[in-house]
């Protein structure tokens, strides 16, 4: 009985210590790893939230861009970081694609991370050159099916969300199309504007101004509901294409062993920041819609996305590196 009493006492002290840590956290600046280049969509969007979050927490938030290898370099750093709540990963849909593309990945995107909260979701928009005369996705697909040589489409790289968005649509529509990867979204989109590329699935924030200026035509969005930035543009399901959704999301993660109290506190504070009108409005101008989930729901979403991405990668025949 004495041993049990001692063990319970130690456990009680440990729980009290965790509770006190959660109450005082953070006591120093937070470091956020963004595994993509400065100025990218994955970099710009969370910075809108961090400005407000930093004010709420009373600590600086230092963003470090560690791009490369399909976001796996930066992600690996956070997976191996101390589980004290001071090392945060912000990643996108690329997080769940990685295990299908990299055979020797040094971490697992679900088991080695605790999902904190999705920052938001942005549809990818099916855009085509304005001079082609297409006004609906059905018109575009009908013309494409009648083209013996097939089509081409651009992306920001093999295995990227822009690539898999197009592949998901291509399979749903029964199209033949050649993938033409580029180094960045601007180049991938510019080639469509010039008419050298037939179509592109670009994030709302990237294509919005060019659609409004009439340089591109938006035919559909690949989420299960319409984008607030494009209320008149139908979803792919509304346009008649099933199982074609492939939205682009961005979320926050902590190392897997981070105490649950810290995960929950960061979730609550980030949710509060996301609900600030100035943050909400700024994200809306960037084409980001709310994606409200608890940490547990976000973890489950990530697990499901990993399996879905693996199936798609296998179906289109991409080989892991």
Walk me through the structure:
The longest helix is centred in the N-terminal third of the chain and has 23 residues, at 2-24. Helix 2 (41-57) packs across helix 9. Helix content is 44%, strand content 19%. With 321 residues, the chain is an alpha/beta fold. It is globular. A five-stranded mixed beta sheet has the order 2-1-3-10-4, with helices on both faces. Strands 7-6-8-5-9 form a five-stranded mixed beta sheet. The protein folds into two domains: 2-121 and 248-316, 3-Layer(aba) Sandwich (D-Maltodextrin-Binding Protein, domain 2); 124-221, Periplasmic binding protein-like II (D-Maltodextrin-Binding Protein, domain 2).
Please give the alpha-carbon distance between the first and last residues. Answer: 56 Å
CATH architecture annotation of the largest domain: 3-Layer(aba) Sandwich
**Low-confidence parts, pLDDT < 50 over ≥5 residues?**
none
Number of domain modules: 2
Fraction in beta strands: 15-25%
Give the number of helices: 11
Strand and helix order: HEHEHEHEEHEHEHEHEEHHH
The amount of helix comes to 40-55%
CATH topology group of the largest domain: D-Maltodextrin-Binding Protein, domain 2
Total number of β-strand segments?
Answer: 10
Let me know the largest β-sheet.
5 strands, mixed
Q: State the strand order across the main sheet.
A: 2-1-3-10-4
Class of secondary structure makeup: alpha/beta
CATH hierarchy, class of the largest domain: Alpha Beta
Mean pLDDT over the full residue set: 92
Radius of gyration: 21 Å
Task: Give the CATH superfamily of the largest domain.
Answer: Bordetella uptake gene, domain 1
Shape: globular
